[in-house]
């Protein structure tokens, strides 16, 4: 039986009234067959609207962080529900204004949220058939138009912006699990490695925001490991890779390990220099190179390698002064001028 959204009654496999005449009742468990039969069946729809292209706030959302509820907590006596981390900052209910006398865990609603996430899976999962031990059959979830990975990334970003770090980490961890499972089935494809690299980068940001530098570095290093497997001619991959390297460098810098910081900064610089060799006409890439040169120069300055620091500052200034930015790219021009001002100030301190 093909699974559908656990909250929908439409087009259930045992509901003949939801099927059009002539529909093939024995669907093959493959993506192509599923697509070919979509015109002959009513697509299942989640009543909360979560399977649409536009995300809607609903009964499973926290009205504070606007992401899916995580560690559901009920305010008493008003019974309004929020994420635990979100409502812990309030003394009055944000919805009704009632005094919060106590907060109780809502395990039943959290179970519903967890089932909802599992029901909106994008990965083809294998499940052991209870009738034939050891015989695996494919389970295909076909009731979503928003893939679970991108959907949960969206939820994680909302939670992260609202400083609900544990919620963001939880959603990102599910994404990482999904992609790892897919990698085991298909191998290291560029798309999946890119996705996993981005997820690990966000997990690193979560850990960094809580002061957990060690875990942050581990996640950033995993991000780098996967992104290094990809072709370097993709601007987005190149940027994500260099950012992860720079973030490791920043953490090492704050720990006082300047040699390690310089090593990571220089790797990021190398990645960005190679990028402008392929995309020399992209101003943002040139500015990225200038920023990397500034980071390397700053470490050299702290290591008392004054000549190297000066050379790198001057190279960065030369790059930015010769860079022409289109008039309509106002924010990019402001960024160029800001970096240029910083570089000149660093040389002026000598």
Automatic annotation (TrEMBL):
Zinc listed as a keyword: yes
Lineage: Eukaryota, Viridiplantae, Streptophyta, Embryophyta, Tracheophyta
Ranges annotated as biased composition (Basic and acidic residues): 11-22
Residues making up the signal peptide according to the UniProt record: none
Organism (species): Erythranthe guttata
Gene3D superfamilies: Tetratricopeptide repeat domain, Zinc/RING finger domain, C3HC4 (zinc finger)
Listed name of the protein: RING-type domain-containing protein
Keyword Zinc-finger applies: yes
InterPro entries: TPR-like_helical_dom_sf, Znf_RING, Znf_RING/FYVE/PHD, Znf_RING_CS
Keywords: Metal-binding, Zinc, Zinc-finger
Domain annotation RING-type: ranges: 62-96
Start and end residues of each stretch annotated as Disordered: 1-40
Biological process annotations from GO: protein ubiquitination
MF GO annotations: ubiquitin protein ligase activity; zinc ion binding
Biased amino acid composition, Polar residues: 23-40
GO cellular component: cytoplasm
């Amino acid at each position: 039986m093909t699974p559908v959204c656990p909250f929908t009654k439409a087009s259930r496999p045992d509901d003949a009234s939801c099927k059009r005449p002539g529909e093939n009742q024995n669907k093959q468990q493959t993506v192509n067959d599923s697509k070919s039969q979509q015109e002959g069946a009513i697509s299942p729809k989640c009543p909360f609207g979560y399977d649409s292209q536009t995300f809607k706030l609903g009964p499973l959302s926290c009205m504070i962080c606007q992401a899916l509820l995580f560690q559901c907590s009920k305010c008493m006596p008003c019974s309004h529900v929020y994420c635990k981390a979100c409502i812990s900052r309030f003394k009055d209910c944000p919805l009704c204004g009632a005094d919060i006398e106590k907060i109780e865990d809502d395990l039943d609603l959290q179970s519903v949220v967890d089932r909802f996430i599992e029901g909106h899976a994008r990965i083809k999962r294998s499940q052991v058939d209870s009738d034939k031990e050891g015989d695996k059959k494919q389970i295909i979830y076909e009731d979503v138009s928003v893939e679970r990975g991108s959907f949960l990334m969206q939820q994680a970003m909302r939670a992260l912006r609202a400083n609900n770090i544990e919620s963001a980490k939880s959603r990102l961890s599910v994404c990482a699990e999904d992609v790892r499972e897919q990698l085991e089935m298909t191998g290291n494809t560029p798309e999946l490695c890119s996705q996993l690299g981005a997820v690990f980068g966000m997990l690193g940001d979560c850990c960094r925001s809580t002061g957990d530098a060690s875990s942050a570095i581990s996640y950033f290093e995993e991000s780098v490991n996967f992104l290094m497997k990809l072709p370097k001619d993709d601007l987005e991959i190149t940027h994500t890779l260099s950012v992860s390297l720079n973030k490791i460098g920043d953490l090492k810098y704050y720990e006082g390990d300047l040699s390690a910081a310089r090593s990571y900064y220089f790797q990021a610089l190398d990645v960005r220099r190679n990028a402008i060799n392929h995309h020399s006409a992209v101003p943002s890439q040139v500015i990225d190179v200038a920023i990397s040169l500034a980071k390397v120069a700053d470490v050299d300055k702290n290591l008392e390698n004054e000549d190297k620091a000066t050379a790198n500052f001057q190279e960065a200034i030369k790059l930015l002064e010769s860079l022409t930015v289109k008039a309509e790219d106002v924010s990019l021009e402001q960024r160029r001028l800001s970096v240029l001002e910083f570089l000149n100030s660093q040389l002026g301190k000598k």
